[in-house]
Design goal:
It contains 14 helices and 16 strands. Helix 1 packs across helix 10 and helix 1 runs parallel beside helix 14. The strands form 4 sheets. A 10-stranded mixed beta sheet has the order 2-1-3-14-13-4-5-12-10-11, with helices on both faces. Strands 6-9 form a two-stranded antiparallel sheet. Helices cover 45% and strands 20% of the residues. The protein is α/β, with parallel strands linked by helices. Strand 13 and strand 14 form a beta hairpin. The structure holds NADP nicotinamide-adenine-dinucleotide phosphate (NAP) and magnesium ion. The site of NADP nicotinamide-adenine-dinucleotide phosphate has 17 residues, from helix 10.
């Protein structure tokens, strides 16, 4: 298959969510250079750029998430999460919420992040030869807490009042002097959705699933997470796991940390909200660079939304606006597209589309391994004489490699 012959046909559209700043520029280049010449691209397009979110009172974000539920697959460009500075810069009517938060709430999804491994970019942990995918529970715990600064002596209690008025009371602490208290919660619904998304993704990617909490200390709270996972595994996934020869493995978080460091990678590590927040930064850094991290939001019903883990690369965009050259790494955004195209291909039994996605990923990796890369990659690569390319040159170099692979 090459540009001269027929393009790959798609039967069902995927949802395309455009975004902001430098990644929006890369988005168009990727489509023009790497997708449209080869694929008869069918997408339902939603412009999640901040201007359009503001113009539609953020309705476009909600619509794009609902379309994702309908079609089952989406690809998303990085988007600005507004803050005070953005309010002025874009003259916003409101400080719109993070699109990722809105989409995640509608899809009830879990985010899985995995590094893209390339020879020449050596992880800090030398035995990590395969990717470690982190799944972070994205609801509750310390992120939805209630806190009190205790001013002085007094009693702190945990009180639950049932809908029928019955009360359950537990002593937290009898304070002699000043202190602090924190109340956190989670729901069985949210924990169950998280567990299902993790098991489904393990099946989908044929990788072992690890899960860890502090259940030995937190005998009700963390233990409930452990029990919910085990119950859902036994009832809904055990057989499938055994057929695929993959494993579900629960261990205490301390033990998990030690095992992860000693491992060669190649599994999914499911983490509670706080653990996932911290561990995903550690794992991303150890593998090299945020610009080489992919991210996929998976709903418990098996809907997928693919994106890059990094943001809109604002600093590069301002250079671009001034007419200066940029050397922004587009690999994670390309992998968002290949992830979505491959999933679309799987769902539609379109082998050609799946093969194209594989080849485009190979082309990215091969291009970097042959020494052609962007500036940020050259800084962490062991390649002796890297050729540093600008944003467009890099995408064109990937295209040249792809042409070779498609012969
Ligand atoms: P960022 O866009 O991830 O960029 C932070 C820095 O990391 C960049 O300035 C750049 O370093 C480097 N970098 C990130 N991706 C790169 C790439 N592909 N190629 C080369 N270098 C790359 O984070 P940010 O600057 O903190 O956030 C910018 C905007 O993105 C914010 O408005 C934020 O709300 C948004 N954001 C969106 C998402 C999302 O949609 N999922 C996620 C995070 C942030 P140098 O400048 O040193 O080259
Ligand atoms: Mg963090």
């Amino acid at each position: 298959m090459s540009t001269k012959t027929e393009k790959i046909r798609m039967t069902t559209p995927l949802v395309e969510m455009d975004g902001d700043e430098m990644t929006r520029i890369l988005w168009q280049m990727i489509k023009d250079e790497l997708l449209l010449p080869y694929v008869d691209l069918k997408t339902e397009y939603y412009d999640l750029g901040l201007e359009n979110r503001n113009a539609t009172d953020d309705q476009v974000t909600v619509d794009s998430a609902n379309a994702t539920l309908k079609y089952g697959v989406a690809v998303k460009c990085a988007t600005i999460t507004p803050n005070g500075a953005r309010m002025k810069e874009y003259d916003l009517k409101e400080m719109w919420k993070s699109p990722n938060g809105t989409i995640r709430a509608i899809l009830d999804g879990t985010v899985f992040r995995a590094p893209i491994l390339v020879k020449g970019i050596v992880p800090y942990v030398k035995n990590w030869t395969k990717p470690i995918t982190i799944a972070r529970h994205a609801y509750g715990d310390v992120y939805k807490n209630t806190e009190i600064k205790v001013p002085g002596a007094g009693r702190a209690e945990l009180v639950f009042t049932g809908a029928d008025g019955t009360e359950v009371r537990e002593l937290i602490h009898d304070f002699d002097g000043a202190g602090i208290i924190q109340g956190i919660h989670n729901t069985l619904d949210s924990i169950s959705s998280f567990a299902r998304a993790c098991f489904a993704y393990a099946v989908d990617t044929k990788q072992d699933l690890w899960f860890s909490t502090k259940d030995t200390i937190s005998k009700k709270y963390d233990h409930t997470f452990k029990d919910v996972f085990q119950e859902i595994y036994d009832k809904e996934f055990k057989q499938k796991f055994e057929e695929l020869g993959i494993e579900y493995f629960y261990t205490l978080i301390d033990d998990a940390v030690a095992r992860v460091i000693r491992s060669e990678g190649g599994f999914i590590w499911a983490c509670k909200n706080y653990d996932g927040d911290v561990m995903s930064d550690m794992v991303a850094t150890a593998y090299g660079d945020l610009s080489m991290m992919t991210s996929v939001l998976v709903s418990p019903s098996g809907v997928y939304e693919y994106e890059a883990a990094h943001g809109t690369v604002q600093r590069h965009y301002y250079k671009h606006l001034k007419g200066e050259e940029t050397s922004t790494n587009s690999i994670a955004t390309i992998f968002a597209w290949t992830g979505a195209l491959r999933k679309r291909g799987e769902l539609d039994r379109n082998q050609e589309l799946q093969d194209f996605a594989d080849k485009l990923e190979q082309a990215c990796i091969k291009t970097v391994e042959e020494g052609k890369m962007t500036k940020s990659l050259s800084l962490i690569s062991t390649c002796e004489n890297p050729v540093i390319l600008n944003s467009l040159e890099f995408i064109r170099a990937i295209r040249t490699t792809l042409e070779g692979l498609l012969q």
